């Protein structure tokens, strides 16, 4: 598998949930936030063995990066690197116009939210995933007697998507490819037909 080390930009509930699944599957996980590694002790304990608190630069030097920050913070995050070429970024954002509390819809038409995110991460390969489920569903054991929890994903790079599907299947999820960032990303983004929906792929 191409993806071994996993980094996070953000350490909220969804980032912690995916990071814990990754660590339990044996992947080194490097967690970052905008307050610095010294503020992440409790988060690292929650994720468990295999996780470490790192700087932004160390988090984005991993094989695949989970972007789990507020949507409105994406432009500032993008500016932290001159060039994102060679990095695979999983866009886990939801398109809220405001944060603390999250509310409103950030209209970026004619782009989908993930196309807009990709514009702010020049050179990155962007995969949309893990934004459509609630955090508690993401954190729960994905393997059920009836089947596996579905993770929808979308992107414009077929090899990267294939590696991503292999990665999350290793966590116990059932990955479902929805196509490109325009079609699939639109279905998953805030207000899309699949946002906030939870499915099991039956055995």
Keywords:
203 residues, alpha/beta, Rossmann fold, nine-stranded mixed sheet, 20% strand, globular
What report would you give on this structure?
The structure is a single chain. With 203 residues, the protein is an alpha/beta fold. It has one domain: Rossmann fold (3-Layer(aba) Sandwich), CATH 3.40.50.720. The protein is built from eight helices and nine strands. Strands 1, 2, 3, 4, 5, 6, 7, 8 and 9 form a nine-stranded mixed sheet that branches. β1 (6-9), α1 and β2 (29-32) form a beta-alpha-beta unit.
The gist of it:
The chain has 203 residues and is an alpha/beta fold.
CATH superfamily: NAD(P)-binding Rossmann-like Domain
Question: So what's the CATH class?
Answer: Alpha Beta
Radius of gyration: 16 Å
Secondary-structure element string: EHEHEHEHEHEHEHEHE
Summed up, the domain count is 1
Biggest sheet features: 9 strands, mixed
Strand residue content: 15-25%
Q: Which class do the helix and strand fractions yield? A: alpha/beta
């Amino acid at each position: 598998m191409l993806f071994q080390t996993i980094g996070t930009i953000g350490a909220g509930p969804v980032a912690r949930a995916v990071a814990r699944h990754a660590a339990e599957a044996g992947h080194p996980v490097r967690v970052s936030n905008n307050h610095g590694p010294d503020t992440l002790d409790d988060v690292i304990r929650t994720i468990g063995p295999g996780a470490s608190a790192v700087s932004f630069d160390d988090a984005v030097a991993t094989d695949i990066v989970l972007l789990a920050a507020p949507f409105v913070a994406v432009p500032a995050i993008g500016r932290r690197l001159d060039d994102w070429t060679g990095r695979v970024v999983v866009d886990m954002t939801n398109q809220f116009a405001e944060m603390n509390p999250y509310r409103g819809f950030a209209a970026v038409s004619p782009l989908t939210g993930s196309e807009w995110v990709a514009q702010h991460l020049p050179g990155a390969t962007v995969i949309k995933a893990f934004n459509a489920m609630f955090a508690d569903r993401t954190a729960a054991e994905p393997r059920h007697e009836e089947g596996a929890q579905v993770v929808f994903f979308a992107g414009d790079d077929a090899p990267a998507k294939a590696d991503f599907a292999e990665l999350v299947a290793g966590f116990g999820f059932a990955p479902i490819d929805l196509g490109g960032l325009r079609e699939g990303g639109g279905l998953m983004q805030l207000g899309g037909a699949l946002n906030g929906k939870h499915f099991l792929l039956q055995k």
